[in-house]
Design goal:
This protein is of the alpha+beta class. About 35% of the residues lie in helices and about 20% in strands. The chain folds into three domains: about 90 residues, Zinc finger, CHC2-typedomain (DNA Primase, Chain A, Alpha-Beta Complex), CATH 3.90.580; about 90 residues, no CATH class; about 120 residues, Dna Topoisomerase Vi A Subunit, Chain: A, domain 2. The protein has eleven helices and 16 strands. It has a six-stranded mixed sheet, with helices on both faces. Strands 1-2-3-4-5 form a five-stranded antiparallel sheet, with helices on one face. It is globular.
Length: about 325
Amino acid sequence: MGPLSSIQVEEARLIPLERVLSSQGLKPRREGTTTRYKNDQFNIVVSNHALWFDNSASVGGRGAIDLALHLHAKVAPRQASPSQIQDAIDWLGRLDGASTAAPSQSSPPAQPESFASQAARLAIRDDERWPLARLYLMQDRRLPRDVVDHLHQAGDIYATFSKERPELTGVCFVHRNLQDAACGATIRGLGHNAGTFSIGEKHASWFAVGDIDLARNAVLVEAPIDAISYVALNRPADTVVVSVSGSHATTPILEAAHARRWHLAIGFDKDGPGHAGWDHCARNYRQLYPDDPPPTRTLPALKDWNDDLRAAPSLRRGRRL
C-alpha cells in the first residue's frame, strides 16, 4: 500500500454513513431525529448524518473513516494506528456502490418525523389496557405499587396500543427534557419475546424517577424498568434516577450534572456494554469538567437492577466502587 493522498482522505470522509452501513447488510430504522442500524452484532445510531454511536460496544465517532475503523478494523477511532487508518480508507474505496461524491445539494435529507406523529401511530394511549400493563410491572417485574401508580398518574407511564406494530402494544415510558416537555418514549412490549423500542428523542430527554430540578444526586441506568427498580431497592433521598435508554451517557446529561452540581453515579448493567459505557462516561466527564468531582460507579449485584429487585429480599443493594 502506498501512502494516501489528502484527496483520498477527503473523499473517504465524504462517503455517506448510510451507504457504509447498508453495504454491511444493516437496515435503517428512523427514530425521531436519529436513524438506527441494528443486527446481532451492532446497534449503531446515526445523527446529523455524520455522527454515529454503537450502543453494543459503547464506541462512537464522526464520519465514514471512524466508522470503517470500527466496522472493518475493529478498533476505536482514537486508538487506531496510521496503518489501520490507511487500511480502513482502502476498504471504504472497495465498498460496493461506495461513492465519494458529496450529497446532492438539490436533494436535502428528509425531515425527521416528530415525536407527536410517531406517538400517534406507535404509542396510542389505551387506558383499558392499563390493568394488564400494571399487572406486568408489579407481578412480572416486581415494581412497587406506589411508584408505578404515581408515575401513571403523572402521565410518565401508560398502556400503549399500536395497530401498525402489534408487538409495541405494551407499556410506554415517556422521555422528558429539562423543560419537562415530552419529547420521546421507550416502549416495552408485553407479548412473547417482546423487546423494547425507542421513538422520538433520547439524546437530550430521558425517563426519570424523582424531581430532576430539586435533586442533588443523579444515578444513570440503562432502562426505565431499571430506574424504577433502583428506586425500589434503595429509596434514595434527594436523587433523580435517569434512564438513558442504553449504556451511553450523552453530552446533555453530563452538562446537566455539571450545571446542577449533581453527584453523578453510573449504574449501567454489570456486563461488557455496561462497563464500556462507564469507562466512556468517566473519560468524557473528566475531559469536559476536569475540576468537578468525577462520577462514581454503582453496580447491581446481578446483571441489572431489575434482576436484583426480583431476587429480593436476599439482595437489597448494589455494590459501590
